[in-house]
Amino acid sequence: MSAKQIVALLNSHIDGDDEQFFSIALQVAADEARAGRANEAERLKRLVQKARDQRRQPGHGGRAPIPLARPRGELQGLVDSTYPKVTLDSMVLSGDVRLRLDRLVREQRERATLRDHGQAPATHLLLVGPPGTGKTMTASALAGELRLPLFTVRLESLFSRFFGETAGKLRLLFDQVAQVRGVYLLDEFDAIGQRRAESNDVGEIRRVLNSVLSFMEEPNATDSPVVAATNHVEILDSALARRFDEVIAYELPDSTGAREVVQRRLGKFKVAVKIWDAVSGHAEGLSQGELTRAADTVVKNAILEAASKISAEALDTALRDRQTFRQRFRRST
User: Fold this and answer.
1) Based on CB atoms within 10 Å of each CB, which residue in 72, 107, 159, 322 is the most buried?
2) Is the domain covering 255-332 a CATH 1.10.8.60 domain?
3) By CB neighbour count within 10 A (0-12 exposed, 13-18 middle, 19+ buried), where does 114 fall?
4) What's this model's pTM, rounded to 2 decimal places?
5) Where are the domains of the chain?
6) What distances in angstroms separate CA 177 from CA 64, 210, 224, one per listed residue?
7) CATH, domain range 73-249
């Protein structure tokens, strides 16, 4: 352990910042692992997990609060931090998707037990599917379930026009994952695949891909979930795709799922079965995000008109409008 790390540990103890204390301890564990002292690294990680678990026990304030961890220094331009309260119960998910996400959450919550038996929780998750199907919201829900901050990586800020800078920025990001526990979201992950196809910067993109591949192979000292989301899985480099522990496909909702999305968003304004039957045809092909926007439009109109219920005409119009917008957008791309 370096003198700088000892000073940081003492300062975090004096300030009562438990999460910073744990983060520094995990940084020391990562240093031990890189130095070939795997047993000491595992011991440190288990002690940190044990301390965190104790904070969640009765008499220790109940559930631990979300740590107020914010990116600092150069990371401020690369990563945005939020503290979601949404959970998986807030989402309308297919049975298979919910089952797999529940399994990941359980592995994360019981990661100390897994490590005691020589296993590690799943940490790399690839979400694929059409826009608006809930991929980004899933990252927020995982953060909410695990009581962790959500760090959203701004991929456009990672790619620099200056030779060699991109790999350096990636190193900063990877060090953050190794030191600060959280859920890390790499949205529009296909940007890496698209850039790989560009002929004017092949050397730089090869270095970027090599950096990402190297990161995916590194021990994750904090067991932080890294969630990559893409609408275009077909253009991802195959070597990248193979590094993920889980690949989960999101689909457009069927009629039953669409009704549940709309009903949840309408809140106190209930949708009778006969009303839904009359308008359900215009919900076909709409994503969860588009259905949510249609429901929001209906609710706002009802509030402004002091209406006590939702009419079939109002809901039908909102769904038709989303269909029209969707078709126009498709033609313009």
Assistant:
1) 322
2) yes
3) middle
4) 0.71
5) 3-55, 73-249, 255-332
6) 20, 18, 7
7) 3.40.50.300
